Amino acid sequence: MTSFGRPLTRNEDPRLLRGEALFVDDVELPGLLHAAFLRSPHAHARILGIDVTAAKTRAGVLAVYTAQDLGAYWQPGPLLVPPPPIAGMEFHQRCQVPLARDKVRHVGEPVVMVVAESRYIAEDALGDITIEWEMLAAVGDLEAALAPGSVRVHDDLASNVAAKARQARGDYAAAVAKAHRVIARRFTYDRGASIPMETRGVVAQWDPRADRLTVWDTTQAPVVIRNGLASMLGLSERQVRVVAPNIGGGFGPKMMMFYPEEVLVPWVAIRLGRPVKWIEDRLEHFFSTTHERSQIHDAEIALDAQGRILGVRDVFLHDTGAYDPYGLTVPINSQCTLLGCYVVPAYDSTFTAVFTNRTLVTPYRGAGRQHGVFVMERLLDIAARELGIDLAEIRRRNFIPADAFPYDQNVIYQDFTRLSYDSGNYAPILEKALAAIGYEHFLREEQPKARAEGRALGLGLVCYVEGTGIGPYEGARVQVQSSGRISLATGIGSQGQGHGTTLAQVVAQQLGVDIRDIDVTTGDTDQFYWGVGTFASRGAVVAGSATHAAATLVRAKILKTAAQHFECAEEDLVLAGGRVHIAGVEERTIKLGALAGLANPMRGAVTPGTEPGLEATSYFGPASGATASGVHAMIIEIDAETLRPTIRDYVVVHDCGVVINPLILAGQIHGGVAQGIGNAIFEKLAWDDQGQLLNASLADYLLPTALDVPRMVLDHTVTPSPLNPLGVKGAGEAGAIPVGALFAQALEDALQLPAKGIEILEIPLSPSRLWELLHGGD
Amino acid sequence: MSQRIAITLDVNGTAYRREVEPRLLLTDFLRHEIGLTGTHVGCEHGVCGACTILWDTAPARACLIFAVQAEGHAIHTVEGLAPAPGQLNPLQQAFQDTHALQCGYCTPGILMTMTAFLAENPAPTEHQVRDALSGNLCRCTGYQHIVDAVLLAAERAR
Amino acid sequence: MKPAPFDWHAPATLAEALALKAHHGDAARFLAGGQSLVPAMNFRVSQPAMLVDLNRVAGLDGIAWDADGTLSIGAMTRYRSIERDAAIAARQPLLIEALAEVAHPQIRTRGTLGGNLAHADPASEMPAVMLALGARFRLASSSGGREVAAADFFIAPLTTVLAEDEMLAEIRIPPLPSRSGTAFLEVARRRGDYAMLGVAVVVVRDAAGRCREARLAFLSAGPTPVLAPRAAALLRGTALDTKSIADAATMAQQEVEPMGSVQANPGYQRHLAGVLARRALSIAAARSLA
Question: Which residues of B are less than 8 Å from C53 in CB distance?
Fold first, then answer.
């Protein structure tokens, strides 16, 4: 009975389906207090004075804190990701603070913390607080922020430049000199907010008798949170337990760490001697949980007459928001992912990350890859049109050939290693996608016929590469318990993507048990000490490989122990169905639980060089990431009058190496595409020029519904990764990455815009925006 | 000044007696007064559907109802779906079978919406299911497996 | 997002409810279905000191037909009841067609027609439908009552002619004449969203098949629902042919005053007004022959 590779249903589901699974806001503790934050209503202002006297005297309020009250505890957050080792880089570290002290730099920045008997009372008390502000001009527009004389988000810096980095290889000038065609355009790609259905939250409880702090946190990185909190609070790591129970979606912004609330709630719980809970409401979420937002690319591509890429040059601006604790992960991903599936002999990419008076920008599913894919795919589309080459063919001509792997792209990636594509084979993916969408039939017959009938149908076809499975490492501990159940613990955490099942499948494959007999803990730092977090499409690769290694070791221990028990050779043993037996002699059998008991003697001794029990811990740290790839294809129909699009067909052909669970993988693709659709045509954070968000509600910031996401057809190819024993690659972000480029192409095609002298060079694209483009821009 | 109102609410067939402020939202009553944390809060402005419960068999947003208003009505939450502890009802089982949940946060609200929908529409088309689902937001699944689950549950019931 | 504190009264009679409102004036708000008021309270943009909860007042809901065919709907009637009423489906199809676009079933379980009309959001479907149907509203207060035409009821966004002590008690919709056809169309970003633009139309033919009456009422087209009388006038006497409808649609584009929103440029809204007017009039014209 194999588990690995099968579409098994999940271990997690029954408790979730019955509403019994614990999420952070479900934590109830005796004496629990509730926190609320007074957040800046202004995008940029100096704080002249704060009066909290009325708030402090309100019945039911226990404490009110401003920055002054934090004393030595007040410090800017840690830099989570240092700048990459790119020569000549400029980087200015400015991290968020627990409570704003002298000035506020974005709407929603916390200024005062109130702790009360209920959230209702805490919010009442926020209304009692008065703050005297000196208003400052706010910057949001990236070019305006860089203009000389612009107001500065950080007064101690000379400008709003957060960072500048250039990566270049090959000779782009030479490429231009010999090019048949050079195409230059400005592209604007705007993402949005991840909006998981569960907002953020923290509960902290200090037990003075046990001398321990327990923190429940909606984090994608419980181990790192534990380490940071222990350090900040002057505790040893062993005194702090962080639990990330069930997390209601993360998508990246819950991987941002040491948010102000995360840092303050535990500190307050210790000071007040009562547990404290803070649950972010949806309004707060729009301002205080990180976004990914816009980049502006001035990009150009040099091609020969056959449409082969000679070089790409890109200069782009990246909005990093008011602070940059997450370093340059997002723009580096943009820079690297732009190269895509293609041979790009010369590449010269420069970006400037810009401080703005807006919410922080940190990775959100795709983490900057969307922007890079958009630029490259659009440039190729324009080139295809100008050179008279078929869309699919121009891509084919530029694919990295199947025998060229590992393929060194010679740029620095987000994991600080030189980007190397470990494996891949792009042409078959494209062919499968073309067949599945009915490419030839659509272009030759269906589309012309529809156009003759006055219907507007368009096709989109885009390719992408996704770097996945990066280090530094994860770990796993597998243990056979005396009950016979298998325990798996890992420090990676979960966002709801089924680690409790996929990792169990890896164990089950080695130990011959049913996945239902495996208990998986991913988010409790008391259960597993070391780890990094669930992000960057790395769970299956890194935690999966660590789990595989640990399970393999336990399998070896089982066989060795059983062989000693039965006094036979290990090769004569069969491990299946939760027990070991001698091949052909079924009655010579022992259950795994009993074997575990034998391995843990209560008398006698444990042989030197061995350990009690049937347990092993292993770590996996890939030197570099595994490269997944895919093609999305779509046929869209648009109402030529209302400009409302309807997706008719959507195909994803994807290569994420070996697949652990096809059912779970399909769910990841579907969910990623849905967020991609949101990003492409529904979701836009609408700011006014004072830095106010005009649509901070789910009624006005539009997430796709079940009527907006089509039924998708999925197919796969497999190029196993040589970088890990399972051959797996990451898949969590893939669905989301190319969708913007896909829509730009398909909508342009449906409305026949190029013939009207209009190109789509931006995302998102609402019907109203399409109307504006058709009527002369904005 | 703060009123305290004594109310008795019928939730999943059990009577719960509490004294509450008028402004206490039904979501907070369910989750924190009587410990039924299966009903989730996603927005508190009536859009996301995570808090959907049954109000006299019809689906309604618990975040838009004050607990004091619920006296005299029969409230059903996700905790009332399973036929016995540790079991799943056919709709819940269908959700597991088709992988119709990932993080599970939106799931209780969807289960309640679909319970009401299937009671009135035992043989729905895919479009009808998607239409009925459109008032519940899910950020993880892309909806396809949820639609599969509802269609599967309907098929199994016939 | 928790609401600010308030005193809550849930009277059993209309007289009590009106007396409370008369006594407390603007400090008190009526609570009907709560689907508009409670979100506003949760955001704390609305902080009434008192709620007069109408949900336990007897006799405020109900669907009844007068002998002359006038439809009377009590203000507290839930959308859910209206949309399931077979007689309304048969005799006032415009109401049912528009109701299907209002939010989602979960909202329609609790939401009331009267509550929605009193809330007076210019992007709501029902106010425009009431204008298209020529509805009249009965307003009640503890000092008496009065009747107001729907066309006179809405005066600004979220503002009606309701005095501080008044309540919308009943909606009265005249019967549709024979040889009438109705249609409701809107364009929203997603199912159930407030529309970027919508229109409710009624056309009535005479015995010779020519248009004798028409009404076009737009939503999300101005600070209140917008009637397009000049477009309607262009249709009178015509055969409701393609050209007449197109001309009326072009005229209607001049009569709307869209304000723009996060979702829509006002120019796009105006464009939609023409498109939807044309499409809705074509549908209604065909239905008026059936």
Answer: 69
